[in-house]
Amino acid sequence: MGDNVSGFEHISTDDLRERAVELARKRWDLRFFWRLLGLIPAAEAAAGHMDSSEASVAQASGLFFEALSAEDDPELQEALRPVYVQYLVDNEEG
Is residue 75 in a domain? Predict the structure, then answer.
């Protein structure tokens, strides 16, 4: 991650998620959402949800549904925190 991430240390993960998602929505940044979707299995593993991390391509529709409800899992959100920070560093207008 870039050197600018230190400015985000005091911001909660929930707020980072909201800011990153809102910015991506405003920009119609499907790549960000697609990246999150692709990272969810690894974030699940990092959050200790090993069974969930074994999702396959055949389960993509189920993974998509999980992605839509993932914001309700604080451990999963903590695992995705660096993604939110980097997206905001790379894309937020100063």
Answer: yes
